[in-house]
């Protein structure tokens, strides 16, 4: 694979291409990230970029500033075409996003992810060392795309402190509890929606209970569970 470039999207053509790319990643939803919203975010100085393999856009990402007093930015959406997933582009994009934010006086980036998707939990909690700040029940309501269709859109909110060391995953001696997640929730939604729904409720109840007791989610283990 040739080197991937990350470039700001400052033209209307690039904005529309990014909007179409998001729809191609989240198949079935024709309004994943409308071009007019992307354009408004870009025009008002927010983070809107494309990932390019030479001249081909193969990914895109958008983030917007949070309350000024927090010096924060919320990373709302990132999508990479299927043929380019699993190649380390998520790490490259986050490093770019981090540098972009620090240059503008932003010290924290937040985003959400589905706690049932094991690879995302590993990347966000173990690889990047973000900290979980909240469990959000059905945060986006019903989502019509092929990835999320038929499930409630529960999310973990995480915060990435850009100038601090990554949050360390707890060692075995420090673990208070573990919360297993499925190996492949996206496949399970297609083959056994009832089982997928059971996973959603079970993980929701366990994580919310742990957070309500004052504990925090302290990482993800590749064996397939969130660590408390």
Automatic annotation (TrEMBL):
SUPFAM superfamilies: Acyl-CoA N-acyltransferases (Nat). CDD domains: NAT_SF. Signal peptide: none annotated. Residues 4-148 form the N-acetyltransferase domain. Pfam families: Acetyltransf_1. GO terms for molecular function: acyltransferase activity, transferring groups other than amino-acyl groups. This is Uncharacterized conserved protein. The lineage of its organism: Bacteria, Bacillati, Actinomycetota, Actinomycetes, Micrococcales.
